Amino acid sequence: MKPAPFDYHAPQSLAEATGLLARLDNAKVIAGGQSLGPMMNFRYVIADHLVDLGGIAEIAGITLAGDTLRIGAMTRQRELEFSDLVARRCPLLKAALKQVGHRQTRNRGTFGGSVAHFDPASEQPMMCAAHDAVIEIASARGVRRVPFAQFGLDFMTTALAPDEILAAIEIPLWPQGHGWGFHEFARRHGDFAIVASAALLTLGPDGRIVRASLTLAGVAVVPVRLREAEAALVGRAPEPAVLGAAADLAGAIEPLADIHASVDYRRHLARVLTERALGDAAARAAARTTP
Amino acid sequence: MSAKRQISVEVNGAPRQAEIEPRLTLADFLRHTLDLTGTHVGCEHGVCGACTVLIDGRSARSCLTFAVQVDGRALTTIEGLGPAPGMLGVLQEAFQRHHALQCGFCTPGMLTTLTELLNDNPDPTEDEVREVITGNLCRCTGYSGIVAAALDAARRLREGEA
Amino acid sequence: MGVKHFGARVTRLEDPALLTGRGRYVDDVKIPGMVHACFVRSAHGHALIRSIDAAAARQMAGVVAVLTADDLPAPMAGARMPMLVPNAAIAALRTQHCLARDEVCYVGQTVAVVIAESRYLAEDAAAMVDVDYDPLPAVSDCRAALEPGAPTAHRDLPDNLASAFRQSFGDVEAAFAGAPHVFRESLFQHRGGGMALETRGVVAHHDRPTDLLTVWSATQTPHIGRRMIADLLGRSPERIRVIAPDVGGGFGPKAIFYAEEAVIAAAALTLGVPVKWIEDRREHFLAATQERDQHWDVEIAVEADGRIRGVRGSLIHDTGAFVPWGVIMPYIASATVPGPYVLPAYRLDVKVALTNKVATTPVRGAGRPQAVFAMERLMDRVAQGLGLDPAEVRRRNFIQPEQMPYAVGLIFRDGKPLIYDSGDYPKAQAEALALADHAGFAARKAAALKAGRYIGIGLANYVEGTGLGPFEGVTVRVQQNGKVLVATGATNQGQGTRTTLSQIVADRLGCRIEDIEMSIGDTAAIANGVGAFASRQAVNAGSSAAMAAEVVRARVVQLAARALGVPEAEVAIEDGKAVAQSGNRPEVGFGDLARLSQGMPGFSMAAGDAPGLEHTAYFTPPQASYCSGTHVVEAEVDIMTGGVRLLTYCVAHDSGNLINPLIVDGQVQGGVAHGIGNALMEFMKYDENAQPVTTTFADYLMPMATDVPTCRITHVESPSPLNPLGVKGAGEGGTIPAAAAIVAAIEDALSPYGIRFSETPLTPERIVEALTAAGAYKRAS
């Protein structure tokens, strides 16, 4: 389990990195390496060139611009996990990150790397879906910004072209006082989710739901937004029957089967976890909006 | 074929230089280039945690890191954890006292991971200790001795035992 | 003699080196000029090899050689590997070739080996070895394998039946014919791995000047390895030294001798350079042996009050593609069923099936977890069927301590009548139940249910044959530097063998424990050895250590009396010195006595003196000694997800006298963790073509720190009368009843739904499936 040979490049700027990608054949970008590393050791990935983004300071770090959280692609998961800003303004993201792998992998693993890797059971693409994130992509041809809904194409396949680098993720924040819930079922702590469910809710002054986001991971080739269930929630009071009906819609998805879980079990978990996530979100929203 | 690269690192406080192939993992670099065989390799896919070392004080899988990526960094391995070579520190002594190791193969990863934890959080709960070592598999001990050792070492360190 | 160390919680002598990175495992061995091996392995469950084209690989940079079966030396090239534990009941005595010749029978079977200047280069070249396969139908499931017309795992065998035998005693037909109640179960325990954190590995080096072939191997059995290598290379065992250095966990799969060990030894000899092969984790999943895979159909006949009249049934054991360790596991399983209960009549028909999967050989428990699962599930069925407390049903059936020694009525795996030597089963169960506050559980469960939580309690008992022969040896030698050398054929994969043997020798000889030097796992250290399996080392090597130390002590007293000029009765021994108990208490150190024991050049030895202050003892147990115990588990089930959390885990463990409770507790706790893996997580999945599917630690789930509670452990010490220390084995008892107890606890937690489980691992998905079938999720509407 030793990787195949490659040439190593350690650009110090995004321009240098995109220049390398424009020029090199069969190059692979490495960010934190916690997913790519195993694939290279198993020789599932064989690259002639490895372009390491680790030295590019301009694409690391978390900043707040208005109501948008901008996460540089090379921001380590650990930094997000312990960020006060994230804890305060985007608590769902913090909760989800605590489930990502283990301390040692979060120290190295990056948010951008995970989104680009696009594992369907990963919490990080899921967070992008839940928040309608915008993905900033750089190449020698310029910078483009892609809504997350158009970024994820298929199983571990994204809109990134071979010469492109995921530079940043912009997460539009929900207003203060929103409610959130995150429930994941994995066989062991830190394992990829069999199913994960995330809920975001905002309540109006009358206590009714004015905005909802429901997302599942682990069920399909890409994270799934439950638009129909979201629409059904809006305008309703967050009562158990209403939340349960939305969870029923989660349980009506057509998930994938693999060695970890069957279609039926995933459907069952999708319903159960969505009901739990919605319950938490409703309780938090109510606690924060009602004085 | 890939061009070799020169790297300079600080390992357990001592500067080391080597010319290496880019594909050489940090684990193999430590073990076979530097002969620091205290770091162990158990799975080479980032799950078992036996290869965990500290890079600038942060725990990391040395099987998922290429040695070229740590050029200029400071590394700590199990050989560098004690007060002097071959001497036991507080955490290592607690491991012996609580029978926190049997075959010793997971031990380097457990010690480096817990060293980081105790630096970050001098007073962890049992649940926090257990959670942080979910990144380290042990087949021998059933973990109870390791958890007890970490909590005992934390207490002794808080009480000023160096 | 002073007992300072035996029975004390002595911290381990092994630890300081291991805690500072100064252990020496096989991958730490580095020899100038050493080259590295990578095996080319079968990609098919079953196929013919049409041809192997290694020309391109041989041309690659850094490649030293590519060896196929024909390149191996005689007799290895044509021979199948030796059968390690032959048995007359084995119909298909099938072991593998070191490198496959024309047929491969499981994915991962060794086909060729690439030797190169680094493992990296060897892997580059291995990918270029072109093996042309002609795939054959493969058989993956052991029940399907025994169906008429099933594909055969080997092309030249008429069917897949490797062995069939029957265990029985008593009048089983009568027991069932008149029984007021009969309960049936079909049970399955799935295969998993030993999964030591250190994979297998071999370094071989032929030293030309001495013609010595040294083989370092991560093995539990170096002496057996030397015999195998000698046979396969046609070489004198005297010119082979096998060393098991620090070994990173064994758990059974490292007890057998593997093709890779032979091939690397042959490569070093053939190529004239030291060769290293370190198995990677993927290879370990493919080619290191595994265990469990047994299907049981059993029934129990009981009286109206729950007393057992008889047990009968059948068992199918999956041996995989080969039978390297004989039929030991199903045999042990068949003999473990009676357990701690009075069983008047018993019959089990056993069939061993060949499949196209890697061979099964003992993994921690070796057939016993399956047997205990079968018997304890039946006991729970009796309790459920008769409306009795599961603990009470067991109480009514226990063999009583005054019935010891107790003849079960079978022949055990050691060829001796199955006679329990000692034990107090009622006491063990009572103590485990007390630890678990069994009496208070009903109230806890009711309170939990009120809060919408589902908790349950389960218990399981077991009796385990340990300390198996044939022997283990220990040499105790007082050296002229005053240090005491202890050499043994026993080995250490984490059991603390060095510490426990040192405790025994220090006490019996009268030296300081820190003055003992240990030579362990090295065929050069002692002529004969067996190694670690079947929880046998404390009994065998421990007893030998005591015997050897006492002989040496007597010699020390004799020489000291002479040197000090006092009668032997006036010599006291302490801390490596002999001190006269009279006069001004003159003393003489062990080192000086060792010199005296060598005599004087040209002078005769004193009458009756043997040269040297040393003795080698080989303890040979008359039969197995039977360890026993009770596990009680409290578990909570999240009925909506099927997630299981173990709340408390209590163990009453009886392995006779304890040499070192710190170490025994560690063995129990670690064994329980392995049992939790078997019960809830570890599933080595193969598809219908016998392709392994779960070949990473992300897919094959081992218990983590958040999955294993800290056990409450109590010891019931029933000394064994069969060895001088009164000890029994302790390495596997933690694993054996775990799955039975855990599954029982889950069933109990779900008792409102009346669900029964009969397989492991019991996954959350399976639990939800059962709850769905039981109507747990039906809406009120």
Short description:
Chain A is α+β, with helices and mostly antiparallel strands and 291 residues long.
Would you mind describing this structure in some detail?
The complex is a heterotrimer of chains A (291), B (162) and C (781). Chain A has 291 residues and is α+β, with helices and mostly antiparallel strands. Chain A has 12 helices and 14 strands. Chain A has 3 domains: 46 residues, Uridine Diphospho-n-acetylenolpyruvylglucosamine Reductase, domain 2; 112 residues, Uridine Diphospho-n-acetylenolpyruvylglucosamine Reductase, domain 3 (2-Layer Sandwich), CATH 3.30.465.10; 111 residues, 2-Layer Sandwich (Enolase-like, domain 1). In chain A, the strands form 4 sheets. Chain A has a 5-stranded antiparallel beta sheet. In chain A, strands 11-12-13-14 form a 4-stranded antiparallel beta sheet. In chain A, helix 11 packs antiparallel against helix 12. Chain B is of the alpha+beta class and 162 residues long. With 781 residues, chain C is α+β, with helices and mostly antiparallel strands. In chain C, helix 10 packs parallel to helix 18. In chain C, the strands form 8 sheets. In chain C, strands 3-5-1-13-10-11-12 form a 7-stranded mixed beta sheet, with helices on both faces. A 6-stranded mixed beta sheet of chain C has the order 7-17-16-15-8-31. Helices cover 26% and strands 25% of the residues of chain C. Chains in contact: A-B, A-C, B-C. At the A-B interface, helix 2 and helix 6 of A face strand 4 and helix 3 of B.
Percent helix range of chain A = 25-40%
Q: Greatest interface and its residue counts? A: B-C, 61 and 57 residues
What does the radius of gyration of chain A come to?
19 Å
Overall SS class of chain A: alpha+beta
Number of strands of chain B: 5
Quaternary structure type: heterotrimer
N- and C-termini, Cα separation of chain B: 49 Å
**Spatial sequence of strands, sheet with the most strands of chain B:** 2-1-5-3-4
Estimated helix fraction of chain B: 25-40%
The global form of chain A is: globular
pLDDT average of chain B, as an integer? 96
How many distinct domains of chain A? 3
CATH topology of the largest domain in chain A: Uridine Diphospho-n-acetylenolpyruvylglucosamine Reductase, domain 3
Number of alpha- plus pi-helical segments of chain B: 5
What is the strand tally of chain A?
14
- With helices defined by DSSP (H or I, 4 residues minimum), what is the helix count of chain A? 12
Percentage of β-strand residues of chain B: 15-25%
SS-based class of chain B: alpha+beta
Contiguous low-pLDDT stretches of chain B (5 residues minimum) are none
β-strand amount of chain A: 15-25%
